[in-house]
Amino acid sequence: MKLRLYFLLTTLSFTLSGSLFAQGEEQAPPPDQSFWQTLVMIGIAFLFFYVILWRPEQKRRKALEQQRNTLKKGDRVTAMGIIGTVLRVDDQTVILKMYDGAKIEFFKAAISEILPEKEEEGKKLEEEPKK
């Protein structure tokens, strides 16, 4: 019983307070400039996202795609965390040779990084047996 009374009083107070505030203030129509301000803010948001997010990502993708297209036999690459040397390059796939001699075929899109020449020379020096 107390719960019903509490609910009724709460609902009544919210209803009356809303109608009292609505009578005290007249609602003015929004000015015409608010539409243009909204459009300008949306435009600024799109410009922000383009400059900060989309454009750098496009540049990174284009550079990676160019690297994938210039692959040649003997390059060391990382594909899905696996490091290998390129044996053969086809239109969409690349065959990599692993350290132990195993050969795996990957899509070019799976190649995430081409290792620089300096790392290759350092690894070759480490692999040579010392006399």
Describe the structure.
By secondary structure, this protein is an alpha+beta fold. The chain has helices at about 1-25, 35-70, 115-125; strands at about 75-80, 80-90, 95, 105, 110-115. A hairpin with a 2-residue loop joins strand 1 (about 75-80) and strand 2. The longest helix has about 35 residues, at about 35-70.
CATH topology term of one domain:
SH3 type barrels
Radius of gyration: 33 Å
Q: H/E order of the elements?
A: HHEEEEEH
Number of helices: 3
Described by the principal axes of the CA atoms, the overall outline is elongated
Percent of residues in β-strands? 15-25%
Mean pLDDT: 79
Question: Which architecture of one domain per CATH?
Answer: Roll
Low-confidence stretches: none
Sheet having the most strands: 5 strands, antiparallel
Structural class, from helix and strand content? alpha+beta
Strand order of the largest sheet: 4-3-2-1-5
**How far apart are the termini?**
96 Å
- The portion of residues assigned to helices is 40-55%
Total beta strands: 5
Under CATH at level 1, the class of one domain stands as Mainly Beta
